[in-house]
Amino acid sequence: MLKRIVVGVCGVSLVGLGLFSLYAWNPSIDPVNPSLTKDYSPEVIAQGKMLASAGYCSTCHTPPGGEEYAGNYEMHTEFGTIYSSNITPDAKTGIGSWSEEAFMRAMRTGVSRDGHHLLPAFPYEHFNKMSDQDINAIYAYIMTSIPGVEQVKKENGIPFPLNIRALQAGWKLLFADTEPFVEDSAQSEQWNRGAYLAEGVAHCGACHTPRNALGGEKYDEMYQGAAIDGWIAPSLTDTSTSPIPWRAQDFYEYLTTGNSRYHGSAAGPMAPVMHKGLSALPESDIEAISVYFAAKNGTDQNIDPSTSEALKSAIAAQHEQADLRINEGARLYATTCQACHYSSETVVKGRPLITLGSSTHLDEPNNLVNIMLDGVRSDQGIHGVVMPGFREALSDQDIASIAAYLRQAAGEESWPKLLEQVGDIRNQPRFEH
Ligand code: HEC
Ligand code: HEC
Ligand code: HEC
């Protein structure tokens, strides 16, 4: 009896496996001769260039100091190290022999030209939301304007059995949102444009939406904040912990200048998103994205942050310093930070009032600690404005004391494992870009 059940189960799973393999299988799409690709108009190529920028193709496909689009940018994930592909038009090691059709299939379904499944570290489930016209424009740009570079993709460092690519078919079935973008007729044209860009090419949710244990985005918690590359991408919805609500104009200021006066700076992984990515889009597109997220926040657009209680109490908190001789964090803050971070009545752009920023209000101290360790480079945050890093100058204990002091000044409960976390954050691979 037992034997029959075992055989039965095996039989069923063999049939299942067979069906699954059939399902997981994708045909190879024939290689084409790149010199035969059709002529594209300069307008289409320019559109493709802009979209490639807004999709941060270069951030993930160009390692620091490496050749543009030639791949092998290292991504550290909880499943192992993943290397991006060579997407230059080199026929041997890049996508030079890919037809428009093969490129379209990869961007929509995460399947490579030869039929193998791609990992969702490549955000195809967002690129899938783009129109055919936009995807083809990116293809035209890459094929005509990027120099081909011969460079073989490194093997991903993902352990068995997760490295079996066919399993991705199951992952896609369970977690990937394969629906095309649908306009919401109840919303304005501007909102819809913002949604199209945010959900598609600019894939804000790839970092800002929390993921389940198998790395699938939790669509019912869209944009509610998530950990990424040792940083926290804060919530962009009404669950935001910012003391001052985000209006459309605050999003716009943040996304165009790298800093919102009432919220803070775009450092870490957010810096290339805005400086190297969104900066290529026309103003009207950034406005549309801002309107979309302001709606997600449900913010009253008519509030005046400059006269808000949150601002007044943040300014007042600077003066209510604990006895500097006994509070080490307050003393270190006054001597190390306050010369640059002080506001008298209003917040001066470029002198952030730290207790208004999300870094002191998030459940995890990562962003505050990362910024203390490595500062804000001139190509991050506000362009041309820097904050020094204190990696060598401050000990873990010093950083934990300052962070604890700021957390208290921000009116939040203390982070329970702060000192330990500072050590971990110091030792994690640094986000480079
Ligand atoms: C968040 C990082 C990330 C971004 C952004 C990104 N890619 Fe990728 N891409 C990857 C990774 C990683 C792979 C390889 C995945 C694997 O090994 O399965 C990849 C693979 C690809 C492939 C498949 C190549 C092949 O040989 O199979 C194509 C095509 C591609 N990307 C195009 C693009 C384009 C075009 C953009 C911008 C619109 C872009 N990618 C943006 C990470 C990214
Ligand atoms: C590669 C990952 C990544 C992508 C993609 C990304 N973000 Fe971010 N974002 C972050 C991280 C990390 C932070 C925190 C940065 C900091 O505090 O310096 C952040 C911060 C922000 C903030 C500030 C929030 C706050 O409360 O402080 C806003 C606003 C924002 N992102 C909007 C967007 C929008 C809009 C998009 C899409 C157009 C986007 N992000 C795409 C990673 C990302
Ligand atoms: C020499 C001036 C200077 C010093 C000293 C300094 N900062 Fe900064 N800090 C800045 C500037 C300028 C920015 C904005 C950078 C940008 O956006 O480009 C900034 C940004 C920040 C941010 C991001 C803004 C936000 O709220 O999200 C945090 C957090 C921060 N600083 C914390 C600190 C802490 C803590 C110290 C002390 C350990 C410190 N800073 C010392 C100049 C300084």
3D structure, described in words:
By secondary structure, this protein is mostly helical. It has three domains: 27-175, no CATH class; 189-297, Cytochrome Bc1 Complex, Chain D, domain 2; 305-427, Cytochrome Bc1 Complex, Chain D, domain 2 (Orthogonal Bundle). Helices cover 41% and strands 4% of the residues. It has 17 helices and six strands. The strands form three sheets. The protein has a two-stranded antiparallel sheet with strand order 1-2. A two-stranded antiparallel ribbon has the order 3-4. Strands 5-6 form a two-stranded antiparallel sheet. α2 crosses α6, α8 (189-199) crosses α12 (283-297) and α10 packs across α12. The chain starts with a helix and ends in a 6-residue tail after the last helix. One heme C is lined by residues 198, 202-204, 206-208, 228, 231, 233-234, 236, 240, 242, 251, 254, 263-270, 273, 278, 289, 293, 358-359, 367.
Sequence of strands across the biggest β-sheet? 1-2
Low-confidence stretches: 1-11
Number of beta-strand segments: 6
> Could you tell me which ligands this complex binds, including any ions or cofactors?
heme C
Distinct helical segment count: 17
Structural class: mainly alpha
Note the run of SSEs as H and E: HHHEEHHHHHHEEHEEHHHHHHH
- What percent of the residues sit in helical stretches (DSSP H or I)? 40-55%
Instruction: State mean pLDDT (0 to 100 scale).
Output: 92
Envelope shape = globular
Rg from Cα? 24 Å
